[in-house]
Amino acid sequence: MAGSSFGEAFRISTFGESHGEAVGVIIDGVTPGVELDEPYIQVQMDRRKPGQSSVTSPRKEYDRIRILSGVYEGKTTGTPICILLNNTDMRPEAYSDIQHSFRPGHADYTYLQKYGLRDHRGSGRASGRETAGRVAAGAVARKLLERRGISIVAYTKAIGGIACETFVESEIERNAVRACDPEAALQMIQRIESLARAGNSCGGIVECRIRGAVAGLGEPVFDKLDADLAKSMLSIGAIKGIEFGAGFAAADMLGSEHNDEMNADGFLSNHAGGIIGGISTGNEIIFRVAVKPTSSISIPQHTINTSGDEQLIVTEGRHDPCICPRIVPVIEAMACLVLEDHYKRHAALLD
Amino acid sequence: MAGSSFGEAFRISTFGESHGEAVGVIIDGVTPGVELDEPYIQVQMDRRKPGQSSVTSPRKEYDRIRILSGVYEGKTTGTPICILLNNTDMRPEAYSDIQHSFRPGHADYTYLQKYGLRDHRGSGRASGRETAGRVAAGAVARKLLERRGISIVAYTKAIGGIACETFVESEIERNAVRACDPEAALQMIQRIESLARAGNSCGGIVECRIRGAVAGLGEPVFDKLDADLAKSMLSIGAIKGIEFGAGFAAADMLGSEHNDEMNADGFLSNHAGGIIGGISTGNEIIFRVAVKPTSSISIPQHTINTSGDEQLIVTEGRHDPCICPRIVPVIEAMACLVLEDHYKRHAALLD
Amino acid sequence: MAGSSFGEAFRISTFGESHGEAVGVIIDGVTPGVELDEPYIQVQMDRRKPGQSSVTSPRKEYDRIRILSGVYEGKTTGTPICILLNNTDMRPEAYSDIQHSFRPGHADYTYLQKYGLRDHRGSGRASGRETAGRVAAGAVARKLLERRGISIVAYTKAIGGIACETFVESEIERNAVRACDPEAALQMIQRIESLARAGNSCGGIVECRIRGAVAGLGEPVFDKLDADLAKSMLSIGAIKGIEFGAGFAAADMLGSEHNDEMNADGFLSNHAGGIIGGISTGNEIIFRVAVKPTSSISIPQHTINTSGDEQLIVTEGRHDPCICPRIVPVIEAMACLVLEDHYKRHAALLD
Amino acid sequence: MAGSSFGEAFRISTFGESHGEAVGVIIDGVTPGVELDEPYIQVQMDRRKPGQSSVTSPRKEYDRIRILSGVYEGKTTGTPICILLNNTDMRPEAYSDIQHSFRPGHADYTYLQKYGLRDHRGSGRASGRETAGRVAAGAVARKLLERRGISIVAYTKAIGGIACETFVESEIERNAVRACDPEAALQMIQRIESLARAGNSCGGIVECRIRGAVAGLGEPVFDKLDADLAKSMLSIGAIKGIEFGAGFAAADMLGSEHNDEMNADGFLSNHAGGIIGGISTGNEIIFRVAVKPTSSISIPQHTINTSGDEQLIVTEGRHDPCICPRIVPVIEAMACLVLEDHYKRHAALLD
């Protein structure tokens, strides 16, 4: 009930603060007998870790994971898998300035209001670093989904006002912003670098596609597949909105336009985004999320301190001027978790 | 795990099919000793029921609720409240045509894929009628929230391409589309009536504002307040997207624009929509949802039947050409449920 | 979290007070496509209802159930089944004397302490009548378990100091106390009738056997099969203890005596009661529960009223002098719920 | 749903195998701002660790805990506390003999049946070592309960047929078996040593008393306080039964004997064990559990191997001939977890 767990039949619990000793995750409900090793998970960690490119935070975290339990002789045992990441490049002293101030856009104020105290170092639990555990767990889910023939891919659709105009899947992992359009990617990188030099930041749109999911996933009425995907995405700090299929554009469409007609080969369109009535149609599941601009900027901003005094604040530290490139693997991870959970829930219902 | 329950500390479970004997809800976790009677709940039911105006379905459901348990001598007892609504104006025979066909945009196909059989009458469990139980439960939550000084209001922001340009709260319940701009409302009504005559339908945008919530609500990291609100909204059949505060527009903003600065009086803006790091800021919580056009239209569309044969289908029945007016109280109800649940969860944490 | 739900993959939620309008249950997670009708459930209701024999309460409740949802054309649809029982033979006025007094052994005092108010009529929610919903739900679980080849039988092992000395399964439903030894049954009936005449009551031991369960059910480490069975049984008001297999006698045994050895045909003994390490062994699952004497007696007892004044109280009303005969179907129902839930959970894990 | 978590408002998740890299626990829902340090927790770990005395296993585990998260500058932050214990004195090779055999009384057979494979080293997840995480979490709960004025004490009541005849609380931690009667303790120690020399083992009874709990804890109807305590206790591998207050003796009592009468000073007796209708009465909560004899004995026993071949087996290793002394802190820990959880749940209900 305190909020650090996600999923039901396939359930994860994360722990850890950005500049504490370690972050990590427990994954419970893993199918036994599935081959799993650390390198498989590490691949995903490396996509999320800082310091990948010129457009990401220069913090040096190797994000080397260790599996502490639940895997024996290279196979899952069906018992909880604990994955640990020690924090290494911690510089808590870099945060002493903000110990008593509220950085605009950050959760400093709300954490203090909620808990009455906070670990201010690098945003503590509110840090994007908490998502490392999610990505590790997502890799385990991905392994299970591979057996089911599911693939999940996310990518940058727009950054700082620059939108992709083509979808070239093979290009996504070849550019630093993980955009699906290589030409737009170049402009995005320039835009980010320019903003970074100015001490500013920008947001973007990330899209995610889930392929191979059978029809029938999702539990009416509250645990609809789209409802759980929405929750999973909004649980990522920087995400401020989500839309499925036609999404907000559906508001301007007619029923005759939006309805996905069918013929003997299946659906003739996919305005629903692969989910109708909260249940997967068998079509590609597609959704987009809005990513806000990174809150940490070095342009002076108005704020108050814990005594209520007004002041100007400049957020120092090693930050990503745009979080889209590194949020892509987090989005994929959360989507993997939701899908694997719903496969297991569906199996329970039918049993 | 099967999906018909929502909430943790304040938890509801709904049941019932559109043309079965009854629909209803159990509400568990209600604070004892609070005055509650049927007329208070009925007010909200009447806002949701069909047949309210020229732009809603002419189905005649009085939606008269009965409290079967959990209230004694006009006060809540702390035990589960069951609220029942008998279905009265059922015409299952009207659906015999679609027993073996999949209506485009409806959950006919996905339910059959999931369960292997379906109650086709009026969409069965996938019907908007299921939300009657939610609205009843939401009224109970609203009663509890009143003690906390919380008010929640939703309203139509756009329908069929016509957007509100002013926000006049007192006008919302005075027009048939529950729009916040009386002039836009007139155009919306004309638009809906015109589409209805053409056998077509349209979608829209509904906005919701939650006022009076203290700072500190929401449970990091997965059960963020916005994550739970997002799930609650996407659990409503017709909703295809949600955004908080600046929402998707945040994708095009700079950090220096999006961050909500503070002075001694509080926040200087509310691009975050009243939630930062998943925790309420004390500001107004504001979000918008995308409502798809009603799936039931009387324009012929391509589909298949359960044998896979292609056919043209016309969806008869008594439908809303635009569901926005009647979805408003459902959105408010879900928001009430989320808020009350999070108040209770917060109390548990601090205890 | 408020406690009126039980189970995870197969989940029930009960509602209703003894002398309110109705009691009932929602069952979520029911496998779709299974034949189910009201008479099948009614058979179990009739085993639980009052007025069955000379040794049960003369309250006249026909306990006629109605299925309100989740079954269509004689088959489960996979959506929630709501089962309702109207209360008919209510005599709330019979309880006006105790409105302001605490009956010894009853939950009057604790409910008032917890909630600050209470529905005193017939113990309200604390009444054994609440178990009617459980028995209805248990019948649905039993239907699902039949497909798996599971049978569950409970019976009286001892009442008022008289113990069964033989186990004749075919006799259980043939005597009014549901004892497994027909000669002991006769003595038990005499004992109960004699106590009833004296205005007193007695307790007993009920044993339950679950046959046909595969090896492998139960989720280490907290949701062990015996842990969940123990919780389910202690959730029944009158039950004060449970033991599996050798149970408390194991405390006096040596390891060499208690360990169940194996040969190629299986286990050579069943001191574990069919569950080792929280997981079913494939052996018969066997446990016993301690049933306290009925709290309602007409012998004057010392108590206080809500003002704290001391008084003598005599509990009038229509009570069972020994609840064992009627608790048997409740125990079976709870065991059915636990088993079906664990089958489904196991299926989710392996999927 | 996979079973490695316990509690709702105060929730723990354990992980780890006996001879894997580490065992540990995540605790979520901890009240923020409470002073907590490692030595406070270590005190409880030292009561559970092996090698304490002549009657416990000689395995050398220092059980040195490390808090990885959730505590900052000596205070809880309200975020999840992860506590890790590295396994140090692992001798997996000692278990190579039993890799393909099923030790009687152990979960070897059931784990293999459930999961299709198992980590056989020291019983893997089924080892008593898993309870180390519970004791650590229980210490955190104990800290929170101290603020509420709650104390929880468990002690050996009987071992190997020798029962305590007095209750001298101050003696409990002064004897190696944690018995409440120092003279009986001496006999118990002799009995255990004698059995150990013979390669055999014995069981016992442990009693637990919870003092200072307010009236009103426990959530009807399924999450009764006794139901949750029962589940928590039966989730401990060696425990085969539980009884509250008069317990199984209630089966032979009359209503006039068992009912706890009241006068202006409170209850005149406590046959109910401090819980009526699933809700605490304010009286001392008292229950007893049956502890089975340790399964690991060095007397040859009949079993089969994974190929089904019959064989004689002798369980080598470093085992406790009677687990009662070391199970005492585990029982206290689980009781602490249940109480803290129910305090928080009660706070949520009333809020």
Automatic annotation (TrEMBL), chains A, B, C, D:
<comment type="subunit">
    <text>Homotetramer.</text>
</comment>
<dbReference type="Pfam" id="PF01264">
    <property type="entry name" value="Chorismate_synt"/>
</dbReference>
<keyword id="KW-0288">FMN</keyword>
<comment type="pathway">
    <text>Metabolic intermediate biosynthesis; chorismate biosynthesis; chorismate from D-erythrose 4-phosphate and phosphoenolpyruvate: step 7/7.</text>
</comment>
<comment type="similarity">
    <text>Belongs to the chorismate synthase family.</text>
</comment>
<feature type="binding site">
    <location>
        <begin position="292"/>
        <end position="296"/>
    </location>
    <ligand>
        <name>FMN</name>
    </ligand>
</feature>
<dbReference type="InterPro" id="IPR020541">
    <property type="entry name" value="Chorismate_synthase_CS"/>
</dbReference>
<feature type="binding site">
    <location>
        <position position="48"/>
    </location>
    <ligand>
        <name>NADP(+)</name>
    </ligand>
</feature>
<feature type="binding site">
    <location>
        <position position="318"/>
    </location>
    <ligand>
        <name>FMN</name>
    </ligand>
</feature>
<keyword id="KW-0456">Lyase</keyword>
<comment type="function">
    <text>This reaction introduces a second double bond into the aromatic ring system.</text>
</comment>
<keyword id="KW-0057">Aromatic amino acid biosynthesis</keyword>
<feature type="binding site">
    <location>
        <begin position="125"/>
        <end position="127"/>
    </location>
    <ligand>
        <name>FMN</name>
    </ligand>
</feature>
<protein>
    <recommendedName>
        <fullName>Chorismate synthase</fullName>
        <ecNumber>4.2.3.5</ecNumber>
    </recommendedName>
</protein>
<keyword id="KW-0028">Amino-acid biosynthesis</keyword>
<dbReference type="InterPro" id="IPR000453">
    <property type="entry name" value="Chorismate_synth"/>
</dbReference>
<dbReference type="InterPro" id="IPR035904">
    <property type="entry name" value="Chorismate_synth_AroC_sf"/>
</dbReference>
<keyword id="KW-0521">NADP</keyword>
<keyword id="KW-0274">FAD</keyword>
<keyword id="KW-0285">Flavoprotein</keyword>
<feature type="binding site">
    <location>
        <position position="277"/>
    </location>
    <ligand>
        <name>FMN</name>
    </ligand>
</feature>
<dbReference type="GO" id="GO:0004107">
    <property type="term" value="F:chorismate synthase activity"/>
</dbReference>
